[in-house]
Design a protein that fits this description.
Elements lengths: L1 H27 L15 E11 L2 E10 L20 H6 L7 H12 L5 H19 L6 E16 L2 E13 L5 E9 L4 H13 L4 E7 L5 H8 L4 E4 L1 H8 L5 H15 L4 H15 L4 H9 L1 H4 L7 H7 L4 H5 L4
Parallel strand pairs: 3-6, 6-7
Antiparallel strand pairs: 1-2, 3-4, 4-5
């Protein structure tokens, strides 16, 4: 997760810095180097370095100053040492599908209702190019592993609480480095939306993926195969276990979970299905849906057996997305 957190930290720091610059632009009434629009005797007077604490770690920013000493920043005040609490709002603006109006709503939430429309407009003009550049940046041609998952959350929209899905894609390149390839906002998770995400990755330069790690969403595998027909698909073992135990009675839960473990901890694929046979002998009559689920998904639950143990630990579960960070 260190690489992922670092990527988000960079996005956060760069955007925060641009917001500070836009605040001074609003105060002075003109952008840097735009002397023709200057109508004030006040001017810029350099910057002072400051380190603030965020959810992604310490972030170094440059606090812009004015010559008359009249300017006071709003988003990061003079003696403020932490910015915890605004990270999610800023990162959310990088999700594809967020309109300029949505970005302005996020900024209104960050700055409060007392800030002038001019301020919000100036900040929006500063950060929208950053967001567009990040959303459309070229990607590497090949990734070893790509994790894809949606984080579900509730938001207030038009006076009502609605469900949203933040589609997250994290890639591991051939050097082992992790990167957040993109974030997209949708109404609900669907294979159709994932197909548009996969096409966006292809349009940005991703030609091949060795392994994709996904959940059991209906149609997801077909969407992946449509864009990347040679990609191995590994369905998340953790999700498979959760689905398997959803309807297991509480008194059987620990035993069923323990008896499932030898299946995905087996040394080979053949040994895994022998363990599934043993599991069926014990639980097949009581919980036939568990057996049916594992057998129906066997091909995409066993991709990780093609790789050594060190790689298996990485790819049989993609919970680094849902447990590592949240968006919005």
């Amino acid at each position: 997760m260190d690489d992922v957190q670092s990527a988000l930290k960079e996005l956060f720091a760069e955007t925060l810095q641009s917001m500070l610059e836009a605040e001074l632009d609003t105060e002075l009434g003109y952008e840097k180097h735009d002397v023709k629009s200057k109508t004030t005797t006040n001017s810029r007077n350099g910057k002072s370095k400051k380190t603030v604490t965020s959810e992604y770690g310490d972030v170094e920013i440059n606090m812009p100053r004015d010559r008359n000493g009249e300017f006071e920043l709003v988003i990061v005040k003079k003696h403020q040492s932490t910015v915890t609490g605004i990270e999610d709002q800023i990162i959310a603006m990088y999700a594809k599908g967020v309109s300029t109006r949505d970005i302005q709503d996020h900024l209104n939430h960050l700055y409060g209702i007392d800030v002038s429309p001019t301020m919000i407009s100036n900040v929006t003009n500063k950060i929208v190019p950053l967001i567009k550049e990040w959303q459309n940046r070229p990607l590497q041609s090949i990734y070893a592993v790509v994790f894809m998952d949606a984080i579900h959350y509730k938001v207030k929209q038009d006076g009502a609480i609605v469900n949203k899905a933040a589609y997250m894609v994290i890639g591991i390149d051939l050097d082992g480095n992790k990167d957040v390839l993109g974030m997209w906002i949708g109404e609900n998770e669907s294979s159709k939306f994932w197909l548009s995400v996969l096409n966006d990755l292809r349009n940005r330069g991703v030609q091949d993926i060795l392994i994709t790690c996904v959940d059991n969403l209906t149609g997801f595998s077909q969407a992946i195969s449509a864009c990347y027909p040679n990609t191995g698909i590994q369905k998340c073992i953790i999700h498979q276990i959760r689905n398997s135990t959803r309807y297991v009675s509480y008194k059987d839960l620990k035993k069923v979970t323990a008896d499932l473990k030898p299946i995905y901890k087996a040394t080979t694929e053949e040994a895994a299905w022998l363990e599934l046979d043993r599991f069926e002998e014990i639980w097949g009559s009581k919980y036939p849906l568990i057996i049916r689920s594992w057998r129906n998904n066997c091909d995409e639950l066993s991709t990780f057996f093609k790789y050594p143990p060190e790689i298996r630990k990485l790819i049989y579960s993609y919970t680094l997305i849902t447990s590592g960070f949240t968006v919005c």
